[in-house]
Amino acid sequence: MSTDTAISYDVFVADPLPINASGLLPNGESRRYQPIAVTLVHGRQDAVLVDPPLTTEQAVAVGDWVEASGKRLTHIVATHGHGDHWFTAGMLAERFGALVTASAATIDQMHNNVSAREGLWDQMWPGQIPPSPVTAVTVPDNRIALEGHDLNIVDIGHADSDDCSVLHVPDLDLVVAGDVVYNGVHVYLGEAADGGLDAWRKAIDVVAALGPRRIVASHQNKNLDDSAERIIAETRQYLDDAEAIAAAHETPVEFFHAMLQRHPELLGATVLWVSARAVYLARKGGDPWQNLLAAWL
Questions:
Q1: Nearest to 247 by CA among 259, 265, 234
Q2: How far apart are the C-alpha atoms of 61 and 202, rounded to whole Å?
Q3: Span 8-43, pLDDT tens digits
Q4: Angle at CA 182, nearest 5°, toward 70 and 117?
Q5: DSSP structure class, residue 205
Q6: pTM of the model
Q7: pLDDT per residue over 47-78, tens digit each?
Q8: Which of 8, 61, 152, 181 is deepest in the core (most CB within 10 A)?
């Protein structure tokens, strides 16, 4: 995307992956993951990659894309702990000699997701995810200098998981927002119990206060633009709709169909079904981790 400054950004969107899980969705669709967006913020020579993808095959495609840009990759940033935003960071860092970085809180969550690999991620994509040791380090003041321009890692707390952050690029009026906001796809609500939606709304407020004109959501419909105003408003509305519909229905199937009816334009019905199952399992109590496994698998 062209700008009239010395830096700009481009986005690579990996298409939805089939999930190794039994059964169809309640609407008859097969299970597929959401699109995954990877952002390259670049100057005349150097570049920073945000939220590397999940599988080895995706990482090869992203690496070829970075190489074709002709830029020297200096840093790889993970916005939060979910593995689909960093499991291939080490593979790409080795290819380009880049430093993997994240906020201290996000690094803690990355360790948690490594411990969850065998029971969750490797079950859904067996043999497709490369080795993923946590090699991320913090940078001073959570700030990366890209050819004289500041790229700021901003902690925002709970969004679709704990200890999320965003990358703010003031000179582009840009926020690379990870999973704090979604753009044209169903929002993952599997970890939104116990006040999570209210915390998420506060996180969105933090992003809005940064004053971006453009937002890159890590899960997006690649045919939509990056309008910050629209994306923020639509994510807020989705959270409000989900809360109201969950209060009005007794079963996950009812919730699933009501949300499909409310938002027929959105991609990613699998994540909607996982969210529905997780929300209603949380109502019954039990171990949160076991509930999450049951919702996905």
A1: 259
A2: 35
A3: 999 999 999 999 988 899 999 999 999 999 999 999
A4: 75
A5: H
A6: 0.95
A7: 999 999 999 999 999 999 999 999 999 999 99
A8: 181
Q: What is the dihedral of CA 50, 56, 61, 62, to 10 degrees?
A: 10
Out of 3.40.190.10, 3.40.50.150, 3.60.15.10, 1.25.60.10, select the CATH number for domain 8-296: 3.60.15.10
Question: Please, which residues have CB within 8 angstroms of residue 230's CB and are 6 or more apart in sequence?
Answer: none
pLDDT tens digits, 178-218: 999 999 999 999 998 888 999 999 999 999 999 999 999 99
The span from the CA of 79 to the CA of 175, in Å, is 11
CA dist., res. 106 & res. 1, Å (int) = 28
Q: Report which DSSP code applies to 18.
A: B
Q: Helix 196-209 crosses helix 228-248 at what angle (to 10 degrees)?
A: 170
Q: What angle do CA 63, 187, 251 make, to 5 degrees?
A: 140
Residues 121 and 83: their CA atoms lie apart, in Å, by 8
pLDDT at 5: 58
Helix (H, G, I), strand (E, B) or coil at 169: strand
